[in-house]
Amino acid sequence: MKIIVDAMGGDNAPKAPVLGALQANEKYGVDIILVGRGEDILKVLQESGRQELPKGVEIAHASEVVEICDDPANAFRRKKDSSLTVGLNLLRDGQGDGFVSAGSTGALLSAATLITKRIKGIRRAALAPVVPTGNGGAVLIDCGANVKCPAEYLLQFAYMGSYYAQKMLGRENPKVGLLNIGAEPSKGTDLQVEVYPLLEQAGREGRINFVGNVEAREAVEGAVDVIVSDGYAGNIFLKTMEGTGLFLAREIKKIFLKNIFTKLAAVLVSGGLKDFKKMMSSSEIGGTALVGISKPVIKAHGSSDAYAIQNAVRQAMEYSRSGMIESVSEHIDLMRLDFSEKNQE
Amino acid sequence: MKIIVDAMGGDNAPKAPVLGALQANEKYGVDIILVGRGEDILKVLQESGRQELPKGVEIAHASEVVEICDDPANAFRRKKDSSLTVGLNLLRDGQGDGFVSAGSTGALLSAATLITKRIKGIRRAALAPVVPTGNGGAVLIDCGANVKCPAEYLLQFAYMGSYYAQKMLGRENPKVGLLNIGAEPSKGTDLQVEVYPLLEQAGREGRINFVGNVEAREAVEGAVDVIVSDGYAGNIFLKTMEGTGLFLAREIKKIFLKNIFTKLAAVLVSGGLKDFKKMMSSSEIGGTALVGISKPVIKAHGSSDAYAIQNAVRQAMEYSRSGMIESVSEHIDLMRLDFSEKNQE
Q1: Cα distance from B90 to chain A (closest Cα, Å)?
Q2: Distance (Å, whole) CA B311 – CA B24
Q3: Nearest-CA neighbor of A276 among B151, B298, B258?
Q4: Best exposed site among A212, B61, B81, B240 by fewest CB in 10 Å?
């Protein structure tokens, strides 16, 4: 197993991606290709006290870096020698089993779609993070890659999310819910109203376990394993969760910092608080899979530290091993609107 | 000041609305009309040890009750002698200064729109709750009344939200943000892209303090005083906040229940936890204003207890006193798309 890591992407590059990739190499025995400016990568190695490249780690030099100001849609074409473009070309050519980047989401999405390509028949790739919920996490698909979605996209997201929950989270017969503002099939925008019967049909035929509409509150509490949404509402959902988590964590912290007694209390519950922090932390999960791309591509959070990158590499390994992409390919005919319509007649 | 209270609406009716209204009468000296089945209301009074109606409290008998299974759009017409219809008729006829109900949101919205009517020129009433945020709360408008919104609705929501933040929350020059998935004016669905320049123009002319798009995360953290949204995304935002709050509160509780030491810790921080609970509790706020209706109408949470109803009555009093409805009426010309378009030429 060999994972390609964008050494130049993210707020803490090149240090975090390089060190995170090395940690993954040590911990999981995975081979690594670090893509980026050779001299920058070597400097990080030296500063960390390493005189040579560890076994199984190689560098693929790329002289350019995609910056935050670059137009996401064209960055990879304009900067042909960027770590993004070089890394994804290596992935396409079979030089590695997955690609991890903490760089621009938009640029990664465009580049992965156009270099690595989508799974044949998949209309759009989706960002599918695992969000912390009352049932130990759910796949949210999509969370921002596709703002405007026709019904077919959401039908495909439902299938892909379902395979993801099975293969990556180990859920048997994962419950698939359509993110909505009420339980009745008539609820929501035109999109949800149109998608509902398609998902219901797929459910009736036993191809996914569609449990109906799911309200945001129940989704957080853990009612489903897969939350199907357009990218706009999915992003609102994800960012509201993040914001509320941060806001509440700060308020809780204030409670413990009040006086000597509350500080003592903090010591008494420190174990629990640590577990809690871990549960809420995005670095534990690693990153967000670009589901629908024909090879494993993981978007790590822009603010990833080395530990988050290490976990993103682990996630890329698991994604590659999971058989997720193969399952989607095998069942692609079920995910086409013309198929659903034909079947409904 | 006299507030009309729907004694039959909500999960805990008639007990919670009746007792909550009596508490408001005692605490704020406000006159009350309890609308509902006379015998049911009197029974609650007797069970609470009262032999007669307190001073300033009267009963308006209504024999019917709008049930959860009634079609929201027509409930008030079909059940002409329901507490909802009778109460709103009293409000329209000037028998009271505001109306509070914990009954069905949809039925209340339809009935208020058709009986009490909207403010002249306002295209749609909106549900505008105050959500807990890092800056001490923000007005979210809309959160579910209007799923499909043309741009003009959101322009009006922005103005009405701004007046609400001024008049009800005491914010000077309230910051108005358009809920979106990125900062750039090009972000979002067609709706946000179309609304952005309208809000920008209103901001440029000093009529509202438009600060641009606001992402859900920043909105929760307290970046703005008014969060402008269509009802679909606003509902996702609100319910995600609620769900995340409940989920985290449960996880925090688990930490404290672990063993004898953590239970001691809970005692040490009990004051802070109580304040925290209060901040997060919807019963403190009271309810959600139906902004845009020509008289104060407050939707209390379906699960309201007496304390929540008491606060909803207080909120109706404040709304009536605030001058909010008058401000909207006075400036209605600014909130019309034809005005904005004319000005832009």
Answers
A1: 31
A2: 8
A3: B258
A4: B81
- Beta-carbon neighbour count of residue B206 at 10 Å? 8
CB contact under 8 Å between B220 and A247, yes or no, is yes
Count residue pairs from A and B with Cβ separation < 8 A.
166
pLDDT in tens, A46-62: 999 998 899 999 999 99
Q: Is A205 exposed, middle or buried (0-12, 13-18, 19+ CB in 10 A)?
A: exposed
Picking from A242, A258, A264, the nearest residue to B272 by CB comes out as A258
**Record: contact B147-A189, CB cut-off 8 A:** yes
Phi-psi region of A189 (alpha: psi -120 to 50; beta: other; left: phi over 0): beta
pTM of the model: 0.90
Say whether A217 and B258 touch across the interface (CB within 8 A).
no
Q: Do A240 and B217 lie within an 8 Å CB cutoff?
A: yes
From B187, B218, B248, residue closest to A245, measured CB to CB: B248
Report the residue of B187, B260, B268 to disrupt the A interface, i.e. the one with the largest count of A CBs within 10 Å: B268
Is the complex ipTM more than 0.85?
yes
pLDDT digits (tens, 9 = 90+) for B288-334: 999 999 999 999 999 999 999 999 999 999 999 999 999 999 999 99
